[in-house]
Amino acid sequence: MITKFSIDESAATAEFGMSCQRLVPWSTGAEEPPLGVMACFLPAGNESIQDCHDQDEVMLVLSGSGEVVIGPDRAGIRTGELIVIPRNQPHVVINPTTETLRWVSMYWPLHEPAGQAGTEDASA
């Protein structure tokens, strides 16, 4: 069986100071997957809420450009780039442009380990 989803900003909800569309896990999945995936849409001139969690994360930029701040480091990001966010590192995404910044974020494990306190239970 093939399961597929469309990345669609109209299916997103407000999270982390932007719009996020949860893709994995999906509601019809028989087993819980080992990771989570969500599409993120950061409007022009905005930044995400700072997040920090005990999960590794990668961001794949689908369109647009902006900046990411991870701990004390800051770097520009653009379409086609993959950004690694190590666990337990505070991070913020900034969009100083006039276009929406879109990316897919994958994080694992799906749930933070017990006893770990992050600002959210998923990534930004």
From TrEMBL:
InterPro entries: Cupin_2, RmlC-like_jellyroll, RmlC_Cupin_sf. It comes from the Bacteria. Residues 42-107 form the Cupin type-2 domain. Signal peptide: none annotated. Gene3D superfamilies: Jelly Rolls. SUPFAM superfamilies: RmlC-like cupins. This is Cupin domain-containing protein. It comes from Micromonospora echinofusca.
